[in-house]
Amino acid sequence: MAFGDVKTTQGLGDLNKYLAEKSYLSGYTPSQADVQVFEQVGKAPAANLPHALRWYNQIASYTPAERKAWAAGVSPLNAGAKPTAAAPAKKEEDDDDVDLFGSGDEEEDAEAAKIREERLKAYADKKSKKPALIAKSSIILDVKPWDDETDMGEMEKQVRTIEMDGLLWGASKLVPVGYGINKLQIMCVIEDDKVSVDLLTEKIQDFEDFVQSVDIAAFNKI
């Protein structure tokens, strides 16, 4: 797949599609092809282009000096694109300089492999030092009483006695539902890996003297 001007919406869209199943533009490691397109893009793509944005942030995490040292790569920026590296100077036609066994190429391949391994190791070390993101959610619960004689203050007090690792209670208010009855609307923040929403609602419903039912009014990932 080739794509056109990445400064246009169409070009960025094509770049995003191209990177849907690729980490880099050419091969399995960053190359000058990535640098070329990175510089033409100029700024981070919008969030609705997740693959292009992920690639852009990855390339931007390297210093200019590191990017300059990357090997050549074939850029799909234009159909029929060729490697960005300059062609090597033509050697003088001297039979004495001909390497019949290709030992020079083997040495270059080994050196390139060594450099690639060092860069991959440096990248892995850099990634391992980044703190892991903690997935959280903000939830608003509707806690409904049995009738208008339910002590809403005591009901809220009972709800807030629930303590769980990864649970943080927030603001609350009473919302009229009719016939003089109010429901308790209370907010909380949970860590997704630690707190089950189903378990939390069950614990609230255990206060049978106060709580008739519990509904989720809003649920948002943070």
UniProtKB/TrEMBL annotation:
Residues 136-222 form the Translation elongation factor EF1B beta/delta subunit guanine nucleotide exchange domain. Residues 79-88 have a biased composition (Low complexity). Transmembrane segments: none annotated. Residues 100-127 form the Elongation factor 1 beta central acidic region eukaryote domain. Residues 79-112 are annotated as: Disordered. GO terms for cellular component: cytosol; eukaryotic translation elongation factor 1 complex. Keywords: Elongation factor, Protein biosynthesis. It comes from the Eukaryota. Residues 93-110 have a biased composition (Acidic residues). GO terms for molecular function: guanyl-nucleotide exchange factor activity; translation elongation factor activity. Belongs to the EF-1-beta/EF-1-delta family. This is Elongation factor 1-beta'.
